[in-house]
Amino acid sequence: MIELRDEEVFYAFAPDMEPALTVAQGTEFTLITKDCFANQLKTNDDMLDDLDWDQINPATGPVYIEGVKPGDLVRIDIRSIELTSKSVMTTIPGSGAISDIVEASTYVLDNHDSVLSLPTAKGLLKLPLQPMIGVIGLAPNSQAVPTGTPGEHGGNMDCKLIGQGTSLYLRAAQEGGLFGCGDVHALMGDGEVLVCGAETAARLTFAISVVAGIDLPVPFLATPDSYVTIASALTTDEAYQEAVDMMSRFLTQTAGLPINDSGRLMSLVGNLAFCQVVDPMVTIRFEFPKNILRELGFVDM
Ligand code: CA
Ligand code: ZN
Fold first, then answer.
1. How many angstroms separate the alpha carbon of residue 85 from the centre of ligand 2?
2. How many Å lie between the centroid of ligand 1 and the Cα of residue 135?
3. CA 90 to ligand 2 center in whole angstroms
4. Which residues surround ligand 2, an ion (CB under 5 A)?
């Protein structure tokens, strides 16, 4: 098995990253990822004051995919996500969208048996896990982008649909693409309003290849049920408009629908949703059901 350990991390998606691993297109490989705190919080007594803040959002990689050229559309198949047995959450006063948080805390939680065990003041909750990847991307075109920031290259999109069995499409800006990921969550709601999900170290398996003969607005996600455009911008207004425009381009240019058909369908069966509102840019997605396009003769990608 081709595997990259979690010592091989970077903190910015940069154009000139040195590859830590080289793999052939379509070949499965495994990345071991640390949680977004670089596994520094191990017990409820490990507080944020003790953190080395230079080690936030490590991404494992970069992985050089043979034959990937700048400008190529690249499909990243997420074959599996295996979580470790623990995850961690923090509350940070003044951080995130919940303005009344006043007390800093660390909560180390159990991930056993496909449930997250969450102690609350009113009793223990068992929440079904929904593993997802927070940070996933390729090297950008020109300027380095910190792993905590989302963008056209991917990065910290915190989209809860990026899970096992989905395919993420990005456009390579550099030779080999230079792929990396981290910040896996055992569970996270849309918005990530506390600035964290259930932050978990993980073991992930991917296969990556170039897609020829098709153009897609990126980042673009195909789940078993939906096509999803993902847009990040400084404001929610800009981000939702971009996500809508991207889906409109997909439905008209790739799926071949006239704009008015596409508009009617987007308004009837499409859904806008928040991915996250707490990173340096907000991320919003537009979801469109695959089965509608199948009915209209569009063959699944
Ligand atoms: Ca994140
Ligand atoms: Zn995270």
1. 16
2. 6
3. 11
4. 36, 134, 183, 199
Q: If DSSP states are collapsed to H, E and C, what string results for the chain? A: CCEECCCCEECEECCCCCCCEEECCCCCEEEEECCCCCCCCCCCCCCHHHCCHHHCCCEEEEEEECCCCCCCEEEEEEEEEEECCEEEEEECCCCCCCCCCCCCEEEEEECHHHEEEEEECCEEEEEECCCEEEEEEECCCCCCEECCCEECCEEECCCCCCCCCCEEEEECCCCCCCEEEEEEECCCCCECCCCCCCEECEEEEEEEEEECCCCCCCCEEECCCEEEEEEEECCHHHHHHHHHHHHHHHHHHHCCCCHHHHHHHHHHHCEEEEEECCCCCEEEEEEEEHHHHHHCCCCCC
Helix axis angle, 259-269 to 236-249, nearest 10°: 120
pLDDT in tens, 170-186: 999 999 999 999 999 99
Q: Separation of 18 CA from ligand 2 center, angstroms?
A: 24
Predicted TM-score of the model (pTM): 0.97
Report the separation in Å between the CA atom of 156 and the middle of ligand 1, taken as the mean of its atom positions: 5
CA of 38 from ligand 2 middle (Å) equals: 11
Tell me the average pLDDT of the chain: 97
List, for residues 249-298, the tens digit of each pLDDT value.
999 999 999 999 999 999 999 999 999 999 999 999 999 999 999 999 99
